[in-house]
Structures are given as structure tokens and as C-alpha cells.
Amino acid sequence: MEIATREFKRCTVVEVSGRIDSATAPELAAVLKELTDKGKYDLVLDMSDVDFISSAGLRVLIDTQKTCQRMNRGRLVLADVAEPIYEAFDLAGFVALFDFYEGQLEAVGSF
Amino acid sequence: MCSEQKRVFSARYESLEAIDAFVANAAECAGFDRCTVYQVQLAVDEACSNIIEHAYGGEDRGVIECSHRIQDGELTIVLRDYGQPFNPAVVPEPDIEAGLEDRPEGGLGLYFIRNIMDEVVFEFDPVTGNVLTLVKRQGNIC
After folding, report:
1. Cβ within 8 Å, pair B13-A55
2. Chain A residues touching residue B11 (CB < 8 angstroms)
3. Which parts of chain B sit beneath pLDDT 50?
């Protein structure tokens, strides 16, 4: 898994590639926590290059969304989620908890 | 390459990627579409993560034996470990309709396994180890 962050005027984009599983989820959690600790609560997770995400990764997304949405101060949105991953999100009841965008540009434009 | 039917992996999180590749190859050999292949990958990843975390109580304390069989379009995956037995009945179903603040932390892995696979059988034996048999039939998801 590789992670890159890009700052935009109204939000921060986190680009992840590879697998988010029990081995790598802690690293993603650390990057996202570093952002929210700096007061960055408007986040786009670009998942265009994510091959796989397990429940360990989903827990990181839920925790981050809770932190972002506290006191209505922001939100975590997801961009370019591959169909098999979206199916798993749907099965987990995650579709109601996140806004999904087709691409990074649309996601950034939503802020 | 569809002939390799059994492999033994170290029970550590770094092995998950190799286990994933092993079962994805099996699911592709069974002729599954990409969403069904992904579902098999997800169920097996969750099962192996549970073995490492709960059966062995941490990394590098044993092995995970993974084997598969393809017959009549049906994929059977068998995972064996030699850790503590695990009673799936004590794990509550997560409330997947709960709002964000009420979402439970755990239970999602077992939920995925139960809801993705067509058959899920846990067997426990102090001599021959814990055996989880997972069966998936061809779906038509994507």
C-alpha cells in the first residue's frame, strides 16, 4: 500500500493504492489521524488504485468519518471506488454513511 | 495455473497478500466473475485475519493451511489452523443499519464471511486443528 496526500483550497485528498488489510490498515489510520489532528476534517479518499479493502480498512474509514463529522466540522468522502469494493461497502451498510463520487475532481468539487 | 491446490502460510498479517493471490487464482480458475472473485478474496482475508488475531492471539504463532477444490463450478476452500478453538456463535451480528456514532467496532469480518459464502462450516478438534470450510458457487454480480 502507498499513500500520498494533496492539499487543496477546501479539502485534502488522500490517494491510496494497493491493499488495505490488517497488515496495512494501521498505516492508513496513522496518516488520516495526522490530518484530523491538524484540524483537517474535509477529506477525499481517492480509491482509484485500491485493489482490496477488508473490514480492518472499513474500521479505519468509520473511525475517521466519526472524527470528521463531529460537531458538523467536516466529512470524509470516497472517490472512484471499484465495483467489487462498492458491493462490499453496500453489504456492510456503508453506502448510507459516505458520499461516493465517480472521480477525484467531482469529490473535490463537492466541498 | 490452476493445479496448485494446497499451500501453508505463516500466520502473520504480511501473509494475507499471498493467501489472497492464491485464492483469487482459484476463484478465477473456477470461472467466477470479478465481483465473485473479490468476494472470495474478502471472505478468506477476513477468516485468516481472525485466525491470526483470535485463534493464535497474535502474529507468528503458527501456520494457516489453505487448500481448495473446484468441482462443477463450485469452489471449496479449506482453512486449517492449530490455535485456540473459536465459537462463532458468541459473535453478535453487527447492526449494519446503525447510524455512524452507533456503528459497532467489530463483527464485520464474520458478517462478511457468512453473507458472502454459500456454505460456512467451523469444526474444532484439539488434535487435527480448527477447520473452516468455505464454499462459493458462481454468482452473477458484475
Report:
1. no
2. none
3. none
For residue A19, what pLDDT band results from cuts at 50, 70 and 90? very high
Contact A23 B16 (CB under 8 A): yes
Domain boundaries, chain B: 6-137
| Closest residue by Cα to residue A23 from B25, B6, B9 | B9
CATH number, domain of A34, equals 3.30.750.24
We find that the CATH architecture of domain B6-137 is: 2-Layer Sandwich (3.30)
Task: Give the whole-angstrom CA distance, residue B119 versus residue B42.
Answer: 15
CA-CA distances (angstroms) from residue A42 to A78, B7, B101? 11, 44, 18
From B51, which residue of chain A is nearest by alpha-carbon distance?
Answer: A22
Residue A25 cell numbers, joined:
490498515
What predicted TM-score, i.e. pTM, was given to this entire model?
Answer: 0.95
Residues in chain A within 8 Å Cβ distance of B102? none
